Every structure is written in C-alpha cells, then in structure tokens.
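Replying to the earlier thread about multi-chain prediction with a worked example.

Input:
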Amino acid sequence: MRSKPSIEAVAREAGVSIATVSRVLNGTKPVSAATRERVEAAVSALDYRVNPFGRSLSTGQSRILLMLMPDFANPYYAEIVRGAAAVSRQAGYTLLPADLEAWTGTADASLPTLLGSLSDGVINLVPMSDQAARREAANGKPWVNCSEFMPGSDVPYVSIDHRQAATDAVQYLINKGHRRIGFITSDERFLYARQRREGYDAALLRAGLAPAPELVCVTGDNSYAAGSQAAASLLAVVDPPSAVFAVSDTLAIGAIKCFSKAGRRVPHDVAVMGFDDVPIADIFEPGLTTVAQPMVELGAAAAEMLLALLDGQRPAPRILQHRLVLRESV
Amino acid sequence: MRSKPSIEAVAREAGVSIATVSRVLNGTKPVSAATRERVEAAVSALDYRVNPFGRSLSTGQSRILLMLMPDFANPYYAEIVRGAAAVSRQAGYTLLPADLEAWTGTADASLPTLLGSLSDGVINLVPMSDQAARREAANGKPWVNCSEFMPGSDVPYVSIDHRQAATDAVQYLINKGHRRIGFITSDERFLYARQRREGYDAALLRAGLAPAPELVCVTGDNSYAAGSQAAASLLAVVDPPSAVFAVSDTLAIGAIKCFSKAGRRVPHDVAVMGFDDVPIADIFEPGLTTVAQPMVELGAAAAEMLLALLDGQRPAPRILQHRLVLRESV
DNA sequence: CTGAAAGCGCTAACAT
DNA sequence: ATGTTAGCGCTTTCAG
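Result:
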C-alpha cells in the first residue's frame, strides 16, 4: 500500500479539481450529484482521509477542545470528562483530556504548549495560581475554568460554591452533636481546597467551636493512602475527633479504612463525611455520606461556556448546586 | 494583543531568515551564537510558539501517540495510561488518551478518524473484532494492541495470559473447597473476557466439576451496579454458588455490595475473587482477593513497542506476569 | 553559517 | 457548477 493519498490523488482519480473534492468533503458549496458520486467513489476507492494538519493550517482551527486535568486516577474527573465530551461532540468538536499530573513540577512544559496550540480552546481544571502558567497553558486561546476558577479574573468559570458546601457539610456534623471535627484536605494550591477550608472554619466559628489546628491534615493528594495516613495522624492526637470532614470521597474512604483497621466503628466511634459523590461512595461499606457535586453537569456547562466563547459570546460565570447525600458514614 | 506571531514575525524581529529561526528552534543545523541569541530574544519578546499544524504538515509527523480506551471511568485504564504516558513522554512524544465509550455504536467514527490521523501511532485497548473498525482506527498508522490483541494477526501486542490467570484464580477457589463457582463477566466482545471464561471453564473441567450455565452472568459493562445485579441473579438460582469469580475488581466489588446487603457475609457465606488489583481493591472492606495485572508495566510496554515500531523495528509480542494477591474476600 | 525558495495538504476567494 | 490559484506556517534542500 503506497503512502497516504492526498486530496490531489482523489481529484485525479475522480477527474475533477481539488477544489471540487474539498467542496464535497465539506459540503461548503453545491456540487452536482454526478460529480459528487464520482468523488465519493474515488474517496472510498483510495481509502482517503483528510489530513487534519493541512486542513487546520488552512482554516486556522482544529475543532479540538482541550481539557487540562490534574489527575486521571481520580474518578471525580472521569465524570466531568463525560459531561464535557458529550456536549463537545454534539457541537462537532472533539474533547481531548490531558493529564497534567506527570508534568507538574517539570521544567518541560511542552505538553500543555503543544496541546494548547493544537486546540481551539481549553477547559481548565488544574490550579493556575500564577499568571505565567496560565498564559502558558491557554496560549492565547479561549478558555474556561471548571471548579478551579480565579476569583477576580475575567475568565469565565463554572463551579459549585465550595465554601458554602463545606459549611453545610460541617454544619450537618455539628447538628449531629459533634464538637471535635477533623478536616482532611489534599493540596491547598487548589482553590476548592482553600475554599472548603474556609467553609469548615466558618461553620466551626458560627457554632462557637474553637478552631483546632491539630485536627486539620493537608495530605498533598487525593489518594486513598493519603486519606488513611491523615486518619492515622488524627487518631494520634490527644483528644481525637468524633467526626471528620474530608475534601474528597477518596480521602474519606482512605480514612474510613484506617479507622476500621484501628478498630473504630464508622459512624459509631467516628463519623466521616466525604465530598464529590463519586460512584464508589455509594458502594463502599459503610455507604459514604457526602456532598454531591453535579459532576456531569459541571463538565457539560464548562463545554457549553467554551463553545459560547468560541462563538464570540461572553458567557457569565455559573454556580451549580451541591447537595448533601446522606448514607451511613455519619 | 495581535494574533499569533508566525515564524516570519520572529525572523523579521531578529533580522534573520525564517530558515535560521527554524534552525535554532529545532537545533537541526549549527547557528552562530550571536544569531541564536537574537532569535531567542525575538522568540520570547514575541511570546512565539511554533504552530504544530505547520510543522506537522511539513514534517509529516506529530510526535503524538494516541491511546484508544474503552472507558475512562474504570480505574484499571488510568493506571495503564500512567505507564504509557511516562515512556512516551521521555521519548519526546505526547500520549493522548481517547475514550471511545461515547462513540461506540455511533455511526460517527470521526473521533477515531480525526485522532488517528493526528497521531503518529496508536495504542489500542478496545476490542477490534472486525477488520473495518481496525483499519479505520489505525488509519494506516503503526499500532500496537494492549491486553486486547488479535490472535493470529501480525499486530504487535502486550498482554497477560488471561486464560491462565483465570484458571489460576478458579483453581485457587477450588483448592479452598468450593464446588459451585459463579462467574461474572462484562462483555464478550472483549478478548480478555472470552479468554478468562475459557480459563474458568478449564479449571472447572480439570477438577471434574460440571459446568453450570446458570452460574455465569454477562453484564455488558464493568460498573459496580452491573456487578451488584449479577450477584443478585446468582443469589436467585436454586443452588447458589459458594464462590464467585469476576473478571474485574469493579464487578467483584459491586457483587460484594449486593451480597452484604442480602445479609451474606464475604467470604464466610460466599467468597469473591476479582481481577486487576486496582487501588480500591486494597481499601474496600473486605480487602479484595484478586488477580493482579501489572498495569503500569502493560502501558509502558505498549508504548515501548509502539516506539520500536515507529523506529522501524518489529517488536515481538510480550506476555507479562499476573499474580494472585490474597486479601480477605476469599 | 545563512538565505531563497520549494513544497507539505488543504480551503477559500476569485474566475469562469 | 467547477477550475485556478494564493496562501496557511513550517522544514528542508539547494546555493552561496
């Protein structure tokens, strides 16, 4: 099999000009039924596929949307991708998720750069504290933030109200009678982490509970193992908490695992509240009480907003609703 | 801010020709220190990034590797991506994972087609039974199969020995004294599913156990919910199994959930064996006894083989080792 | 060591 | 309705 046929080969095969081939390929201009058929025959005879590089170089767009994600392994992100992919696709765009996990802390920023310039726009889920990183990643392209937005910036975003959600969660714990409430968080470079901490603090304050620094653990990531370690350290403080609020379900599940191994019954000895409501939250034993984020909707909204941006509009920020889902761990 | 600067703008700014700019960008040919500096200054002054479309159109390659995945949501695949991404990256390639889940059954095959022609090669994890789909996806590009290979084809692959692994798992159950062993599988379009079923059958046969069609459940997917439903149906047969072997950890965990809800203790009343050894397997209660696949290594090997292929070599198929990891569910 | 120029495959005026 | 042609941004001979 010889090398890939170009549009010219198709034109020759069909006995028409390349412009005509382009027209039937894209449906941009009317073409007589007869020629159309000849072209289509040639296309399939040659097994021709348009070369996206040629096309994009010419049109200036790729119809690819990039999604920058902090971590493929967290099921939370998989759901968001699903939502975003569906709306992108139906608008004729392809959503490309890229896991930046391997690239953080690396001097080599070529992935974001390459992909950034490959795409027509980007949906960002990773923390972008400094301006440099932000410009780097967006590369002048339209972009929107999802969950991680920049307060005060003019980049459109969609998120839940992390602060309020955390307050609601902790308030629920307080209403259940808890007074010593631990807090397990992942990485405070993330806005969600900072805002949920604020919500935690606010709920404590409102209830007249003294903040207890020894009860807050910053793990660095959202792995199960990190949750377990945090729980272990909470168990080690002099007056251990009777409840803990974790900023993700994975952390919460890791914590429960640790508590169980240590012989503490959940929720009897210690209550555990998660965040996200990923699929495993409903399956794990005990069922995890958690703050549900509308993950699919977040992804879908992000894609819609990006599409609007590409369309020249100025989409307004959106805050979606969270809700407490009560299961057995609290 | 004006539109993106091209290489020509850089050349003008630096007072050199575009060829020279290209040379310092790529280090292809020697350039005097003085001009190099001028060019570099121009590049950063203009915040220039090379346009990947122009470059790829010219070179005929993109340095992008595509990974075709059946389902982002299954943690199993996340681990494989991790392995493949690491080796791709260090070879100067970017790994792009694409979730085909949304596209299966769709007439629109544009995702695979677009991405296929965007990339220099593909790592395939989805079942490719028919030739058409296979050619479509590869689009004449080098490709390798990972886990899902095509027996008898000349496409390089890396996998474990699914059949043997399943036999080992079931044999272990048999050694534990089980005689009625259920089997929960996902989707028999997958080679892994067919081969693990063969292994299950073989182990039964060798032990002189009669095959019991009422004990095998084909769910269609690997969700927790599917595992639960399958378990429920197993509970409903006249002589329910004392052990069940599921082809994935997610299915196994779903099954355990169902058994627990039905008041059956695992492993006391019914033993459950999973497959994959994803992170949650170690955290779930009870800890899941499972067949561990070297997921990261599978991904890494797949990437290495693809790279070899791109290098003109003919990599030999590889079979990696599985191993039983014993926890509490059996 | 550097520049001029010929493409790479495609789209979109502009003709006809 | 169809063909001609000028780019899109880049790499790479080929000259010098």
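DSSP finds 13 helices and twelve strands in chain B.

Feel free to reuse this layout for your own posts.
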